Amino acid sequence: MAIVTLEQMKDQLGLTADQDADDALISGKIEAAQDHVERLLGYTFAERYPDPAIIPASLKEAVMQLAAWWFENREAVSDVSRSLPFGVAEIVNEYREWAF
């Protein structure tokens, strides 16, 4: 289950609903970003939040920030490359399942 819709992501990117040329690409970025955030958290959203309505807004924001970052910076190497966009790691760390 994707926690961010295509429409929400298009709003994040400043695109309108009729700009659909990149819909498949954007959907792929959402899927990849959610997978990455879930791996950082140590659990899937479906496991922790059986009702999607209770997923914290900040976790949705982390997925959108990461998906937007990957959409805007599609090259593997660039001047702005870094592991995660500013704020994503901080959001994830607040909800991460820590195990030692």
Automatic annotation (TrEMBL):
Superkingdom as given in the UniProt entry: Bacteria
InterPro entries: Phage_gp6-like_head-tail (IPR021146), Phage_HK97_gp6-like (IPR006450)
Pfam families: Phage_connect_1
CDD domains (alphabetical): gp6
Coiled-coil positions: none
Protein name per its UniProtKB record: Phage gp6-like head-tail connector protein
